[in-house]
Amino acid sequence: MTEQRSGIAGGSSGAAFATVTTLFFAWGFITSLIDPLVAAMKGIFDLSNLQAQLSASAFFIAYGVMSFPAAALLARRKSVPTVIIALATVLAGCLIMLVAANLARYGIVLLGLFVTASGITILQVAANPLAAALGTPERAHFRLTFSQAFNSLGTFLGPIIGAHLFLKGVEVKAGTVVTDAVRDGALAGIDRAFFWIAGLIALLILFFYASRKLVAAAAPPAPAGSATRGVTAAFSEAITSRWALLGGAAIFLYVGAEVAIGTQMALFLNSDAVWGQSDAAFGVPILGWFMGGDGVAGVSLQEAAKAVAFYWGGAMVGRLIGSALLARFDAGKLMAVFASVACAMCLYVFSVGGVSAGFIALSIGLFNSIMFPVIFTLTLERSTASEEATSGFLCFAIVGGAAIPPLAGAVSDATSNITAFIVPAVCYALLAAFAVAATRAVIHRRGEDAPVSPH
């Protein structure tokens, strides 16, 4: 039976991996819509930076609520049914967003984001270990990083489309007023965006259902007895592993830093202390073309929000480069270098500011690139807990995206968007320390009694 199963997997794992990778693109696109949405909510509902960041908190808090239920669901229902349930939940969240846009209620927006993120949480719990497992163990870092590159393609397109739909005419600087016509136009844009997303998610459900046998045949078998584990058991198992806890802390810090930068990037670039009164960005060929000029001096909020795509696009390029680098260099050492550079860039923005800080801030995405997949696979290799429990705990830790952005928002309200970069700088410094520690830790091979040393 084992030999027959291995033969099936060997013949279909490549196609199954390609099918699973489409899911990474979908959740990347939806997640990156949060960046222009935060700026739009600030203008539409006249919110403070802290209040606007609740949009990000409502989205990412779902990871704290749903990750362990998702892990229990994965253990009971296996990968393919779990993915379909996840996509159906995302679809429900999109429909709630349609209601929120038509009723113009911020509270319903927060509910819709929470439900949408709940589905994405379930999707990540199922898809991350699945992508890592569809092939040889030696190539797990490469496969997950390669899938994350397609996730980054979605995150690159999301801010451009979101800025075009959500932010036409919306401004948030002191003294500006959002008229009823502009407000209605922004809400109509949100309605259109989530209407089309709902349709695409419905098509993705049908596509994945049609591919269910292909993926199920290539997926590795579940560990014996995994179906009997519940939420409490999964959490209890995860916290018995020191490396599951360390990996969870690293994911918390990484996602918190990444989201804090991304959700405030448009407001940061639009500020007069950065690009608000400068046309320098329009002189950069590709960047200027994507931003599009409105003929008014300086960078408007909509133009700044389009530039945010390059923050996420840097992650896409970095993951493609990182896939090649990870095939040749130690993952922990490479991550330590990337985290240290990201920390230095945040400190530059914090201490220098000005027009150059805008370009430096956008470039941080390039060094964010490999962090999530490398933290994930480094932790799976070193954790003594099961993959289901460890994956659930790591996705639970994505709740850092709900905790750290409001902290950065509060710093922005008290000081400025520039000084708020000290928050992610601290996160990246701690991530560099995690990566160094991982290079010195033992690796636990699944199915083997004794751990082996890292290589």
From TrEMBL:
Entry's localization field: Cell inner membrane
Stretches assigned to the Major facilitator superfamily (MFS) profile domain: 16-443
Pfam family, one: MFS_1
Keyword Thylakoid: no
Key word Metal-binding present: no
Keywords: Cell membrane, Membrane, Transmembrane, Transmembrane helix
InterPro entries: MFS, MFS_dom, MFS_trans_sf, MFS_TsgA-like
Protein's membrane topology: Multi-pass membrane protein
TM segment ranges: 12-34, 54-75, 82-100, 106-127, 148-167, 193-210, 243-269, 309-327, 334-353, 359-380, 392-412, 418-438
Main location (coarse class): membrane
Name of the protein described by the UniProt record: MFS transporter
Originating species: Sphingomonas donggukensis
